[in-house]
Amino acid sequence: MKDLKHLIYFENLLQEANNELVAKAVEDGEIALGYNCYYIPEVLLNLPGCFSSRLRAPRCQSADIATYYMTNRNCPYVRSILERAIEGGYNYLSALFGAEGCAAMERMEEHFFLLNPVKHDNFFVTIIDPPMKGDKTSLDYYKQQLQLKVLDAMHDKLGVDTSDAALREAVARFNELCDVMTEIGNFRKLENPPITGYEFHVMQLVSEVCPHNLILPYLKETLEELKTREPEPSFPFRARVVIAGSEIDDPEFTKLIEMCGAMVVADRYCFGSFPGRERIEIAEGETAFDAICRHYQHWNQCARFMSGDKIDQRHTEVKRLVDEFGADGVIYESMKFCEFWSYEKVLASHVLTNEMGVPCCTIEKEYALGSVGQLRTRFQAFVESLEIKKLQAKEASR
């Protein structure tokens, strides 16, 4: 396929947290607000005068200093984020809005004020206690946490307008971004898509780490480009897969899978578009804040949710993506030392394989891709098994 006009530019934006568009927004007086987890609604950090910055540590090869303050048995994602903070990589931030998604995440966020690694005037950290169930009591508690530790903190410490009118404006702008990304992602449903999983992964990441108002024009132009982009003469992959799991913010991981013959057609993982790019609908008579809280509690697919309905929702959502995007199987990923996703990976693989008839491959990975020999072998074997299943199905239907 013909190269996308802005792909190299997007790739370059992912080389640093404080990239060209982030630096421009800060220079223009916008307030940069960092976050690590879907539990912190991205839309709240994009109120007028602010922009969200989901934290990554691109090209982090060592987390030795962060490991000294934490432990080498903590998830490598949180250690890499702390390492990059100590290196001065997040000095553009005015605040970090954290969530106790797990003990390791909370410990990393606590070190942002214990060590004071971000050298920015009046920088502060606030950490919410997110719910573990999807019921009304949990929703009420979630709303209280977000009001006290996000909205009130933004208003009192940064002077941000947090009125219902401002929230509705933020929702409208957020929905515009979501609509563009959803339309781009939907090309992957086609039998022979004009976009690869790698390309979509790059675009999804820049939509999370760059100021929305600055990246949106490039994404809109790319959407128009895709509408007329000619795909390969025939589908160039041997299988189609959904990736599910924890933090995956390195597009090279998606590229590795696709080099092994499987196109990534849907991304149900932290930093992915499921959840992340669903429209927020405000019901009649509902405040914008209530709608935001309801939306994020409902769509949240975090393995931290322990109630039966949310566990079932996670499995059903992956099966929905398999069916909707025509996938042949699922790759379930967990970060090394991640307790929640390690358990979820085993349970979900069993449910999908034995109860829903969806082939699964489970893997564990470091934050930095590093040595890929074992992963490549696993992916190649999984692709071959999917091909065999398709051949057997054809034989059985004759």
TrEMBL record:
Q: Which domain of life is it from?
A: Bacteria
Q: Which cofactor does it need?
A: [4Fe-4S] cluster
What UniProt keywords apply to this chain's record, in alphabetical order? Iron, Iron-sulfur, Metal-binding
Q: Name one Pfam family in it.
A: HGD-D
Cite the InterPro entries for this sequence.
FldB/FldC_alpha/beta
Q: Which Gene3D superfamilies match?
A: 1.20.1270.370, 3.40.50.11890, 3.40.50.11900
A molecular function (GO) held by this record is: iron-sulfur cluster binding
Record flagged with keyword rRNA-binding:
no
Q: Does the keyword Iron apply?
A: yes
Please state which protein family the record places this protein in.
Belongs to the FldB/FldC dehydratase alpha/beta subunit family.
**Which named protein is this?**
2-hydroxyacyl-CoA dehydratase
What is the species of this protein?
Candidatus Scatomorpha intestinavium
